[in-house]
Every structure is written in structure tokens, then in C-alpha cells.
Amino acid sequence: MAPPDAGAARPRGRGGYWLYLLPSLVLFLAIIVVPFLMNVATSFTRWSGVGTPTWIGLDNYTKLFRDERFWASFQHNVALIVAMAVVPTIAGLVLAAALFDYIAKRFGARTASALRAAFYLPQVLPVAVAGVVWGWMLHPSYGAVNQIFGLKVNWLGDPDLALATVMAIMVWFQLGYPVVIFMAGLQRVDPSLYEAAEIDGASWWRRFWHITIPQIRPEIFVVLLTCTIAALKVFGPIFVLTRGGPGSATMVPSYFSYLNFFQKVNVGYGSAIATVLALIIVVVTFLFLRVQDRDQERDS
Amino acid sequence: MTSDRHFGQPGRWAVLAALVVLAVVMLVPFAIVTLNAFKSPAEYSSGGPLSLPQGLYLDGIVTFWQRVDFGLKLWNSLLISGVVAVAAVLLSVLNAYALGVGRVRGRLWLLVLFLVANTLPQEALVYPLYYLAKQVGLYDSKLAVMLIFTVIQGAFGTYLLSSVLGQFPRGILEAAEIDGASRWRILWGIVVPVSRPTLTVLLIFFFIWTWNEFFLPMVFLISNDNQTVPVALGVLQGEKMMDATMSSASALLGIVPAVAFFLIFQRTLTRGITVGAIK
């Protein structure tokens, strides 16, 4: 029986909990909210970073939409989404299923986890360090790749090759992440599903399509979302490997905004690029979460 | 034992072989970097990148280490990542206590705000942060980077931990309240000890994520005395004065701490990797 004055157990009401949020709210305001609003405000001005910004309304944005480098940078971003989200997710699905539903069963769990660790290792590197590794491997004069194969290819310096090279590096870097997430997701799947399918004579591919993929759909969403955001934000590898070049062959929005902020001192224009990028990322996040919600509703 | 209906005996080895080849391809860059970090430039030009080093040539590593004062970079990275990890966990705990346990009004909006903050590109914050830091004399200081990442990581931690603490067994909390324990004591005496496994995972993730950061530290930490490991290596990449084997040595110095953390924290990381997936 609840005592009649059970409410008395919480004498101070709910308001007291706000105190615990206070330090965060102060820091959050100073480090995220105010700077973000300042960035948006700056995007409506012409400003070199010193003196007073001049209000120019939407001029930066109209200029932006006519700027070929800006559109090119988004095209490269799409290419990097392919390299960092689409390819790793598809390859990761096949690899995780192969390790979980084939290698682990026939060669033992240890073989499967050793292979998984090998695929994952590039992921532990800071992305800038991954860039340093490949910058050295692909150096046009002394790089290991040209030396080994007796080539004289300028992998990162040739405008026709640079983007493809960066994409390949990013596949190498990113691949392990979906493999690990998907294998963790597969642990959750009821083994009797696989056993029943095998007794029915379902081929490996049929099991892959009809059990593996539907069962780990939440993980697929998470991986696609996080990798797409990572691809939209990509900066470190571009900075280390190509600085957006040669020309603007590997220019991406994040590097393009950095360039305008700190090298061209076109702060207003840089802010406009950063604002558009932020908007795209927030929209992509919400779209993904919506689709995921619908997907879960349909299931239940 | 299941039958190999679809891949015969040779097919079964072919699958394994294909995966092993892929694994080797993934690991080859690590092997080549390690191999050549211990060679002299002369050895490299005569034997190529695949020959085994004759003896241990440490000059490349030592010269690079001294030139960039790598010990100091390690210390900077360690200090920044360590402080951020602890402070961000602390912030996450305080926030999640109010949001998950206290269920303050408007918590849903606050959670969305924290999530958006975590997904925002740093490019959309960098210039105002740079400008403000200059105004208050925090530009080119480790403290500025620590503060910024404490908030960014804390935003993610809050989002995650709030849902964990939302599931916290009510009975324990109510019993403690009836016993007259204050909220502050309930937090430190009950909530924190019980959620320690989750907090450990967060701590390690925050540490590694902060260690790996490049963009904001690169903008903020311009003096040699303040740079972190990724910043120092990234900025020096492709410098003319670096020969083939010294470049290799620099890459190795970037790889070693990262792989060391992975090995040290492997257990916790594999347990918590799905936690990190939400990021």
C-alpha cells in the first residue's frame, strides 16, 4: 500500500534538477549556440576578419550558387559519400555475413575475429595519420607504390586521378567500421533462423538477402547515416593529401570554407559555405531518422 | 555440421583465401611503413620498399622525433584528450541525471539540441570560435581546445547517457529518497557507481575521438609547443626536407599510439562499439 503522502518523498519538486544542467548550458551557449549564430550572421556580410563587417544581405549566397568551385566541391562530396558510406556499407554487409555465416562456422570463430581485426585496423588511425601514411606510400618520386610496381604515376597530383585516389584511400580507411558494427548486430539474430534456412536448403545468397539484411536493418541505417555525415564533413584527408588540388580536383565544402576563412580572408563567404554545409548535414540527419522511424513502424 | 552444398571443398578454401587476401591488402600499408621506418635512405633507394632492413637503422625516427619534439606532442595529445575525456564524462553525467532521471520539462528539445550540436560541422563554428578565443586571449592555448571538445563530446555523451539513465531502476532511487538522501548524494552514491561500465566506455571513446581530431586543433594550436600528434604530422606531411625513410618514420610515429590504444582498450571497445555507432 502506498502511503497517502507518497509525494512527500520528493519535497523539492522537479525544478532542482535544472541546477545540474547549468554548467552545460553556460558552456553550450558560449561554445556552440553563440558561435553558430555568429557564423550565420557573418554569412550575410563582407568581412576580412578585422574591422567592421559590411552587411550585404544574400550576396554571398547568390555568389555561392553561381560559383563553379562550390558546385564542384559538392560533386566531390557525393563521390566521397560513395567511397565512405555506400561502398563500405555494401562491402561491409557481404564481408560481415561471410565472416559470421561462413568463416566462423567452417573455420572457427577465431579465424573470423582475426580477419575482422585486420579489416578494422585502419579505422583506429587518426584520419590525418591515415593521410600521412598514404601521402608517403603514393609520393610521386619515392613513394612505395610507384617503387614496387615500377610506375611513375602522380597519384595525387594528376587532376584526372586525384579524386579516385582519395576515394580508394577512404574506402580502405572506412571499410572496417561497417564490418564490426554489422557483425555485432548479427550476434543479436536468433541462430535458429539461419539453421531453419539451411535445413530448407536456402543458399548462402538467399540467407544473406532474406535473413542477414532484414535482421540488421537498424545497423545499416546507423552506418549509412554516420558515414554519410563523416563524408560530408571530411577535411583531414583532403588537407593532408591534396589541399583540395590539383586545381580544385579534390575540393570539398569543408576545405573550401577553411580556404576562405584563413587564406583568402573572405570570412563572409566562408561562413556562407559553412552554413550551407551545416544545413545539409542537419537535413540529412533528420531525413535518415524519419526514414528509420517509418521503417520501424512498418515492422511493428 | 552443415553441408557445403553451395561451395564445394575447393570453394570453401577459395572464400577463405579471398578474405585473407583482402585482409593482407588492408594491412600492407602498416607493414610497409614499419619496414621502411627502420631503413637508411641509401638502403631504401638500393633495395626498394619491400626489402628487409639490414640491421636496425634508427636515425630516421630519432631525427624526426627530435626535429618535431615528438615527446612534447605526445604529452599535448595525452593531456588534451585526458582532460576532455574526464570533463566530458562529468558534464554528460550531470546533464543525463537531470534529463534521464530528473526528467526536467523540455527534455526532448534539449536532447535534440545536444544531438544537433554533435552533428554540426566544426566549420560552422570555427571562425567565431577563433575570433572569440583571440578576444579573450585563449587563441593558441590547449585550454581553448579542451573547452571546445569537452562541450562537443559532452553533447554526444548527454544524448547517449540520458537514454541509459532513463532506464535506471526507479525503485532504488525512491528508496534512497525515502531514506533522506539528497539528490547530490544519490547521483554520486548510487547512479554513478551503478552506471560505471557505460561511463568507462564513454571515457575511452572521448579520449580516442579527441586524440584523433584534426581540424579544430589544427586551427587553434599553431605554435610548436601546443600541437598535438595528428596536427604535427598532418602539417609536416610532404615537407621538402623529409626523405623517403623519414616520412615513413613519421607515419609510424602516428600509427604506434593509435594501435597501442586499440590494443589496450580492445575489450572495452568491442563491448561498446555499438555505443559509438550512434555518433
Automatic annotation (TrEMBL), chain A:
The chain crosses the membrane at residues 17-38, 78-103, 115-137, 161-184, 220-241, 267-289. PROSITE patterns: ABC_TM1. It comes from the Bacteria. Pfam families: BPD_transp_1. Its main location: membrane. Residues 74-288 form the ABC transmembrane type-1 domain. This is ABC transporter permease. It is found in: Cell membrane. Gene3D superfamilies: MetI-like. The keyword Transmembrane applies. It comes from Microbispora amethystogenes. SUPFAM superfamilies: MalF N-terminal region-like (SSF160964), MetI-like (SSF161098). InterPro entries: ABC_transporter_permease (IPR051393), MetI-like (IPR000515), MetI-like_sf (IPR035906). PANTHER family: ABC TRANSPORTER PERMEASE PROTEIN, INNER MEMBRANE ABC TRANSPORTER PERMEASE PROTEIN YCJO. Keywords: Cell membrane, Membrane, Transmembrane, Transmembrane helix, Transport.
Automatic annotation (TrEMBL), chain B:
It is found in: Cell membrane. Signal peptide: none annotated. Keywords: Cell membrane, Membrane, Transmembrane, Transmembrane helix, Transport. Residues 74-265 form the ABC transmembrane type-1 domain. Pfam families: BPD_transp_1 (PF00528). The keyword Nucleus does not apply. PROSITE patterns: ABC_TM1. The chain crosses the membrane at residues 12-38, 74-96, 108-131, 143-165, 186-211, 246-265. It is a multi-pass membrane protein. Belongs to the binding-protein-dependent transport system permease family. PANTHER family: ABC TRANSPORTER PERMEASE PROTEIN MG189-RELATED-RELATED, SN-GLYCEROL-3-PHOSPHATE TRANSPORT SYSTEM PERMEASE PROTEIN UGPE. This is ABC transporter permease. It comes from Microbispora amethystogenes.
